[in-house]
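As the next step, I wrote out a protein sequence along with its fold in token form, included below for the reader:
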Amino acid sequence: MSSNVRTPPVALEPAKSAAALLGFIVGYVLLGILCLQLQSAQSGVTPIWLPSGLALAFAYWFGLRYLLAIFPAMLMLALYAQVPPLAAVIAAFGAALEAAIPIMLFRRYDVVGLGGMRNMLLYVLMGPIIGPVFSASFGLAAMATQTTLTIDA
């Protein structure tokens, strides 16, 4: 049987589901701390965000419900990076959408694995391009809550 994104996500027993959820939160926070080591002068802004890949993998394997764990993970990262909680919640919405939108598009357009040119092109368009647009948009909105943005002409 081939792996199909339309098949239901992996169902876990409640104890294993709780352990997976906790592992996701811990992994997200640790990867976030690692990436925040590269942050710019603006607190919480980094050129690489590895937790996105972890979120995409968890949503793909276990279902979109695991993306709710991004919220407590982002609040922990906000404490670490000294970012206001409101900005963290806004950024968490963007991070959740960054993983959820590609998964929903994979299912909608029957992207099954990376076999064939069509699936490879759709995967590249949906995962690393469309998803981050949501995260970047919400990240910009989050930054706007903590500072006044100015654009020099």
In short: The first helix runs from residue 14 to 36. Residues 43 and 125 are 29 Å apart (CA to CA). The chain has five helices and no strands. Helices lie at 14-36, 51-62, 70-81, 85-108, 117-146.
